[in-house]
Design brief:
Protein name: SnoaL-like domain-containing protein
Structural class: alpha+beta
Number of domains: 1
CATH topology: Nuclear Transport Factor 2, Chain: A
CATH architecture: Roll
Largest sheet: 5 strands, mixed
Organism: Streptomyces agglomeratus
Strand order of the largest sheet: 1-5-4-3-2
């Protein structure tokens, strides 16, 4: 195996744990409107879209493995469920995020008096 074919070692648990902390802080900073704090968690080559103003994140679960952190939650006041998949840098900084949105819950908009 030459240097071009060398496999990358998986990140240490310290990097993964730091990434989980950075994901939690990212939501905290976004909800507080602290874009400077949010930016401090990003890798210099980060690819994240601009946050939506006026939203609050309610995180139900965070799952992490290696250089990947997945957050499952919902946005309010829209009541839209989402899954965010973050990729971490070698230092545990946030390198990218891909968001998957679910449609608003139909039961939240149903007329409860209807049969």
């Amino acid at each position: 195996m030459n240097s071009r074919q060398a496999r990358r070692l998986p990140p240490s648990s310290l990097v993964t744990d730091s990434g989980v902390d950075h994901v939690r802080l990212a939501y905290h900073y976004l909800d507080a409107g602290d874009l400077e704090g949010f930016s401090s968690l990003l890798h210099e080559d980060a690819r994240l879209e601009n946050p939506a103003p006026g939203c609050r994140h309610h995180i139900d679960r965070i799952v992490a493995s290696g250089d990947c952190v997945v957050a499952i939650g919902r946005l309010t006041p829209q009541q839209v469920e989402f899954v965010d998949v973050f990729t971490l840098s070698d230092e545990g900084m946030l390198r990218s995020r891909r968001r998957y949105d679910a449609h608003p819950r139909l039961s939240a908009h149903r007329d409860r008096s209807a049969p």
